[in-house]
Design goal:
α12 packs across α14. This protein has 16 helices and 12 strands. It has a single domain, classed as Cytochrome P450 (Cytochrome p450, Orthogonal Bundle), CATH 1.10.630.10. β1 and β2 form a beta hairpin. The strands form 4 sheets. Strands 1-2-8-5-3 form a 5-stranded mixed β-sheet. The protein has 387 residues and is of the alpha+beta class.
């Protein structure tokens, strides 16, 4: 176990709002050991940015980790050549060109259809009725699992996300996760014959075309679902909330003095949808006087690094005019989020502008609680508009 200074948290309070404790961690030391998480946390943005690249020390290969055990060893849990080979194989699905030429038109079509359908109602829960559905429909396209409802995509994603963040070891949470991974395997098996006969740009199809093993294919589809449903859902809902609670910044976008992309980048810096990424220490290493031993568990705290006051001018404030360039929202090393281009397109180019354009007079009608620290977003968000 590392000899970093010990920092205790209240898990319930940390889940409700981790930022006060995170700020105290960074004020305490560049690395802290949190017994309640069983991990050493890196607290500074520049340390995370630099050390994420040192895969010989901070390894993503975690045979005993929750993700590997529950979902299979996907490319996110591999390093070096093994990771690079799988990343190259899936690139035809998530390249900027494919996002622009294939996925964007589909994103626009189902988003417009959804908002047209909802418009006469005049009210909704932004999280469950709009953001969740947009995210689910997008993921159906990208994964190739087009036969399942968007609601089922959200269910299996949430089940896996809960499972891989189940550091307390709750058996019911693990059982739900297993049920969801079993369902995904069934959906993959159903689609394989059709995609073998008529290949397309979907993740399932391009992996089959690349000749990847069945285990690789299934693990990477599960990875895409776990990372491609909750996070876009949380950012769509959260960014809408941030703009509605900061009307001056929404006005800047509408007046052409700022962009939807600026809102996206700043929101994901300020309220990181993925708060951390785990690593396994592969060899003895010393950092800032702290000795990390082989097999120690380390968390790269993206959400904490994105609020580092030595890097960002107003770290705890949502301000679309500040420089988000140093943000590590999508990671910083070889595991930089493969879905970054699709996420930016879906949210900044499609969802946000279309929501505000097609739901005139959009406004909050109740409280919007947030939850989570490893993955964070709004839990509900009642809104209304001029029908």
């Amino acid at each position: 176990m590392s000899d970093a200074p010990v920092f205790h948290i209240d898990p319930a309070a940390f889940w409700k709002d981790p930022y006060p404790a995170l700020k105290q961690m960074r004020a305490t030391a560049p690395l802290v050991f949190v017994p309640e998480l069983g991990a050493t946390l890196l607290t500074r943005r520049d340390d995370i940015f630099e050390n994420e690249k040192k895969i010989e020390v901070f390894s993503s290969d975690q045979p005993d980790g929750l993700m590997t055990r529950l979902m299979g060893q996907n490319m996110m849990r591999k390093d070096g050549d093994a990771h690079a080979a799988e990343r190259r194989a899936i690139f035809p699905t998530i390249s900027p060109k494919t996002v622009r030429d294939v996925w964007k038109a589909q994103f626009e079509r189902f988003t417009s259809d959804l908002l047209t359908e909802l418009h006469p109602r005049g009210q909704a829960n932004m999280v469950t009725d709009i953001a969740m559905r947009i995210s689910g429909e997008a993921l159906k396209c990208i994964t190739g699992l087009t036969q399942i409802p968007w609601s089922e995509m959200d269910r299996v994603s949430q089940g896996m996300m809960d499972g891989i963040a189940n550091y307390a070891g709750d058996p019911e949470t693990e059982a739900r996760c297993t049920d969801c991974t079993t369902a995904i395997d069934r959906y993959i098996t159903e689609r394989m014959p059709d995609l073998a006969a008529a290949p397309d740009h979907s993740l399932l199809s391009v992996q089959m075309q690349a000749g990847m093993s069945d285990a690789q294919i299934r693990a990477n589809v599960k990875l895409a679902i776990s990372g491609g449903q909750n996070e876009p859902r949380d950012v769509i809902g959260g960014a809408v909330w941030a703009l509605l609670t900061h009307p001056d910044q929404l006005a800047m976008i509408r007046d052409g003095h700022a962009t939807w992309m600026q809102a996206f980048e700043e929101y994901t810096r300020w309220m990181a949808p993925i708060g951390m990424s785990p690593r396994r220490i592969a060899q003895r290493h010393t950092l800032h006087g702290v000795t990390l031993e082989p097999d120690d568990k380390v968390f790269l705290m993206f959400g904490l690094g994105n609020r580092d006051e030595t890097v960002f001018t107003r770290p705890d404030v949502f301000d679309i005019t500040q420089d988000c360039g140093p943000a590590i929202t999508f990671g910083a090393g070889p595991h930089f989020c493969a879905g970054a281009w699709a996420s930016r397109c879906l949210i900044a180019e499609v969802a946000l502008p279309m929501i505000f354009a097609q739901l005139p007079g959009l406004r909050l009608t109740g409280d919007t609680p947030f939850g989570g620290w490893a993955f964070r977003g709004p839990l509900k968000m009642p809104v209304a508009w001029d029908a």
